Amino acid sequence: MDSKKQLNTQLVEAAEKSDLASVEAALAAGADVNAKEDIEGYTALHHAASKNDIGLAQFLVKNNANVEAQSNTGRHAIHLAVRDGAEDVIKFLIEEAHANVLAQTDLNENLLHKAAFSGKANILEYLIQKGCTGANDADGLGNTPLAVAAQEGHIECIELLLKHGASPGGKAEDNQTPLHISALWGHTDAINLLLAAKADPNAQNARGNTPLHEAAKKNHLGPVKALVAGGADPDIKNSEGQTPADLASKSLIKKQLVKK
């Protein structure tokens, strides 16, 4: 390993450990502040952002760290900060280092996708206030930020996204709506929120399944009850001719799917 590469490796490893003294030493010895020497292609600033190490982040930016440097998958430091709920570094990167709030990864994930995944509603609201748009933008899998929040069951994030114009009917590449996703993962409160926002309880995905099919096949009692109460039709058949009751394996679930 040549000396420059070794110094760069020392720099990135020190940043990953939040070892400011070793970071300073590596830079003083000639390490490249924007070196990418780990398997993910992260720079020292990526690691500082992920760990919410505000002192390290400030030091790196002062020493010409590229705020928009991208990892192997197109992640900027701000993506990691938002994903990991690093509030101090998020504010520093946006307000002082002028990070791009519209930055996307190679999978077309924007900052709202990352905030929805983290479940930090306060960060989500802050990003929207700072001009982060894309509440209805789909990532590489067709998922909107609302779909991500629906999968994770992050109620406050769902409420915020709906408040700021997210469509409850946005479909992923397999025509899964946020309601399908909440039903599949068993998030009753999320289902009720989406139904209140006029999500279609009888929307069908690429396999012809409604949200009720998704809840029934996982034997999620609460979601099944919520969907039926919200107008889901238990008689709709999917592309294989199956009703939700056909997919349920528990008698208690099947009973909920019999029209009164």
UniProtKB/TrEMBL annotation:
PROSITE patterns: ANK_REP_REGION (PS50297), ANK_REPEAT (PS50088)
Gene3D superfamilies attached to this UniProt entry: Ankyrin repeat-containing domain
SMART domains noted in UniProt: ANK
KW ATP-binding (keyword) present: no
Alphabetized Pfam families for the sequence: Ank_2 (PF12796)
UniProt ANK repeat ranges: 40-72, 73-95, 141-173, 174-206, 207-239
Disordered: annotated segments: 229-248
Assigned keywords, A-Z: ANK repeat, Repeat
Designated name of the protein: Ankyrin 2,3/unc44, putative
